[in-house]
Design a protein that fits this description.
alpha/beta, OB fold (Dihydrolipoamide Acetyltransferase, E2P), 5-stranded parallel β-sheet, DNA-binding, CheY-like_superfamily
């Protein structure tokens, strides 16, 4: 297996050095960069595209959650924090793991084992294109609630004013991005633009019904009903060889 590229975003130089010392014992992880704050961390992640991110939660000006919100695609994330209250909260974000400072060497090794297992499960799913893959995850913050959502688990995207509603499991939070922005990043084999307002995951289509004026109507597995515009209905039929 190739080395796993990693980045550290942490405001404390001492904590960054501690993580680098711990990483020396794990030759399968290659550190590609470090940053002391969110803005520099954002540029680092955009340029280096690490597979793994060690992220401090409580940083001045912007916190770790705000960094995740800025990213189109979120790496495998291990939160590092001195505050136990944040550690518990991080599970709501679907982080792979969290490490309490000062970081215990054995506890760190367990976290790295989780990373390795997750990477092996994903397989060779890397791409030079800046498009999301089914295994990619995005960060959504709606009010005080936050999620790291795997692209393959999203049923439907829907315009709501300046926001886009994202449907997955029993959740439907709002994402502050336009549908066009999202569509440009989605894997085209999985997602289909049904009309001006909605994009569907074709793997969650439960039923396709002929509708008025040559249109089609979809019933999604979560019960949502989506009407495909006439123009898109022709494309849909061709895509699925109807």
């Amino acid at each position: 297996m190739n080395k796993i590229s990693a980045a550290i975003v942490e405001d404390s130089r001492l904590a960054r050095n501690e993580l680098k010392e711990l990483l020396k014992h794990h030759k399968n992880i290659e550190l590609v960069g470090e940053a002391p704050n969110v803005d520099q961390g954002y540029e680092l992640i955009r340029s280096k595209r690490p597979q793994l991110l060690f992220l401090d939660i409580n940083m001045p000006e912007k916190d770790g959650f705000e960094l995740l919100e800025m990213l189109d695609e979120v790496p495998i994330t291990i939160f590092t924090t001195a505050f136990d209250e944040y550690a518990i909260k991080s599970f709501e974000y679907n982080a792979l793991d969290y490490l309490l400072k000062p970081i215990n060497e054995k506890r760190f090794a367990v976290a790295i084992e989780k990373v390795t297992a997750k990477m092996e499960a994903k397989g060779d799913d890397t791409s030079s294109e800046h498009k999301l893959r089914e295994s990619s995850q995005i960060f959504i913050k709606d009010g005080e609630q936050c999620w790291l959502v795997k692209i393959a688990d999203i049923v439907l995207f829907e315009i709501v004013g300046n926001y886009t509603r994202v449907y997955f499991q029993d959740q439907k939070p709002l994402l502050y991005k336009s549908l066009n922005q999202i569509e440009d990043k989605l894997p085209p084999d999985t997602f289909f633009r049904a009309n001006r307002q909605q994009i569907v995951n074709i793997n969650f289509i439960g039923e396709v019904i002929p509708w008025f004026n040559g249109k089609l109507k979809l019933t999604m597995n979560n019960g949502s009903e989506v009407e495909i515009s006439r123009r898109q209905s022709y494309i849909f039929k061709d895509k699925l060889s109807f």
